[in-house]
Amino acid sequence: MAAEGLWMSIVELERSHLVRQTREKQLSQREACERLGIGVRQFKRLVRSWKQHGDAGLVSRQRGMPSNNRLSSSERERIAALLRDKYPDFGPTLAVEKLLEREAITVSAETVRQMQIDMGLWRPKRRRAKRVFQLRERRPRFGELIQIDGSPHAWFEDRGPRCTLIVFIDDATSRLTALHFAPSETTRAYLATLRSHVLAHGCPLAFYSDRHGIFRVNAKDTASGDGKTEFGHVAERLAIEPIHALTPQAKGRVERANQTLQDRLVKEMRLRGIATIAEAEAYLPAFMEEWNRRFAVDPRDDASAHRPWTGSAADLDAVLARREERVLSKALTFRAGGSMYCVKIAGPGTALRGARVTLHHHQDGTMRVHYKDRVLACTAYKKLPVPSEAEDEKTIDARVDRLVVAAARKSVATMAMGTT
After folding, report:
1. 38 and 82 co-located in one domain
2. Is there a single domain that holds both residue 287 and residue 155?
3. What is the distance between the terminal CA atoms of the chain, rounded to a whole angstrom?
4. Together in a domain, 194 and 240
5. Considering the entire predicted model, what is its pTM?
6. Is 313 a domain residue?
7. Backbone torsions φ then ψ of 397, nearest 5 degrees
8. Residues 87 and 112 in one domain
9. What would the DSSP string read from start to end of 203-217?
10. Shared domain check, 276 and 207
């Protein structure tokens, strides 16, 4: 319905209908007030206005008028210039945060969104029917379930190489507990992130991951071994239960976190000029603190489910070390990692011939030889040929990127030699 050329809103149409009912004695003014959620005095004013001007008297006088809180033209031009030059690919919410944080400009997200649409910087998302998944309720305590995943991405855009961010996020609180950048998604990268988590929070009850070979032995016809991966052995030593999701949607909390990180973290590092893994690692603690302040929620139960780590960092490194067994030869030698090693002891060492020793490969690249309750000294004396390392979909990009960089350097060197 139109009144004096102005369209009436749904609320104004409802008011007009109820005013007519009260005038026709079909409804009392008190009942009309209860339906509209307004006071009797305000309703009486509506009735008087309707008597004088009809439906037009119920239309807001601010309709079509500029808002009192409208930005000045100079302020809009300033914001538009910043959105165009400094924050061209920022979403409305993140742009509003940065305008307040870095430019001291307070503006609503909807205003920024409309400006971005007008400038062609933001395309409204089309609503589409999505497959419905049953939502799983959060765990009640912090540390009961930690969702873990790796996110390969161009984190440094064109400023640095493509790499992977390992993400640990708590199911109960959406709190980031550990982040770690690595060239590719490997067992070593997950163990480094696990080390940070345990030292900061303790040992959680369970990890929730996908079914990649880092976490789970997927071969159906495996006849040897104990069915556990290196990461699985470490989790067992720390008494952490590994749980594997059937679908990506099942571990949706970490999947959604990856999407938000690929948006927010990339832009934060761009603003700070971060271009290397070392620089990114130094920035991650501050980013995690801000993330948890903004996105983390309180658990239903305040008691933490983490078991405190009571040992030292060196003790934890020993737990995280990859272990494998070897049998010493009569000359007290063994082979490992493409090299031949010889155990050094005082005396003939006949008691160690044929002894079964355990090799501990630490994250820093060192190796220790354990026999019962002592560590044996050893030295490498011969290098052996080893086959090329196999790659999977988690690591192939990092390897090809290294080949591309090496080829580019070789080409530049060849051109430099040609010019001389």
Report:
1. no
2. yes
3. 84
4. yes
5. 0.75
6. no
7. -60, -45
8. yes
9. B-SEEEE---TTT--
10. yes
Identify any residues that bridge with 194 across adjacent strands, giving them in sequence order: none
Report the distance separating Cα 215 and Cα 232, nearest Å.
Answer: 6
Listed residue (102, 79, 402, 89) closest to 266, CA to CA: 89
What is the secondary structure of 252-293 as a DSSP string? Answer: HHHHHHHHHHHHHHHHHHHHHT--SHHHHHHHHHHHHHHHHH
Task: Give the alpha-carbon dihedral of 61, 64, 69, 70, to 10 degrees.
Answer: -160
Tokens 């490498």 correspond to 380
Q: What is the residue type of 227?
A: G
Which residues lie below 8 Å from residue 271, measured CB to CB, with a gap of 6+? 98, 102
Three-class DSSP category at 223: coil
Backbone Cα Rg of the chain: 33
Q: Are residues 251 and 113 in the same domain?
A: no
- The answer on 156 and 33 residing in a single domain is no
The position carrying tokens 């490969």 is 361
Query: Is 91 contained in some domain?
Result: yes
Same domain, 159 and 251: yes
Nearest to 168 by CA among 139, 136, 204, 133: 204
Three-class SS state of 239: coil
Q: How far apart are CA 115 and CA 79, in angstroms?
A: 9
Q: How do the pLDDT tens digits run along the chain, 420 residues long? A: 444 455 778 888 888 888 889 888 888 988 889 888 889 898 998 899 888 888 888 887 777 677 777 888 899 999 999 999 999 999 999 999 999 999 999 999 999 999 999 999 988 877 666 665 567 889 999 999 999 999 999 999 999 989 999 999 999 999 999 999 999 999 999 999 999 999 999 999 999 999 888 998 876 655 555 678 999 999 999 999 999 988 877 888 999 999 999 999 999 999 999 999 999 999 999 999 999 999 999 999 999 999 999 999 999 999 999 999 999 999 899 998 889 999 988 877 778 888 999 999 998 889 999 998 889 999 998 888 766 666 666 677 777 777 777 787 777 777 777 766
Q: Domain containing 163 — which CATH number?
A: 3.30.420.10
What total number of domains does the chain contain?
5
What domain range includes position 406?
396-420
Whether 108 is covered by a domain: the verdict is yes
Strand order in the sheet with 163-170: 176-182, 163-170, 146-153, 206-209, 241-244
Q: Where are the alpha helices (DSSP H) in 329-386?
A: none
194, two tokens:
């696990």
Residue 239 belongs to a domain = yes
